[in-house]
Design brief:
- This protein has 64 residues and is an all-alpha fold.
- It contains 1 helix and no strands.
- The longest helix is centred in the middle third of the chain and has 48 residues, at 2-49.
Length: 64
């Protein structure tokens, strides 16, 4: 009986640890999702303000 109780205690601890990891990861995912949304919004605004111009690799910069 003691061995079963010991294993159960270890399993409960492992589940609690994993739950903490998942909760921390979800927080990180939420932060990264918000940052991505902000960056996507900024890029869309930048494209709108530039008239959605396509920059080609061989195009001279505007200061030339």
């Amino acid at each position: 009986m003691n061995a079963i109780e010991e294993k159960l205690a270890h399993l409960i601890r492992a589940v609690e640890d994993l739950s903490d990891v998942v909760a921390r990861q979800q927080g990180e995912i939420d932060v990264l999702t918000r940052r991505t949304e902000i960056l996507m919004r900024r890029e869309a605004e930048r494209e709108d303000s530039n008239g959605a111009a396509v920059v080609l690799g061989d195009e001279r910069p505007p200061h030339y």
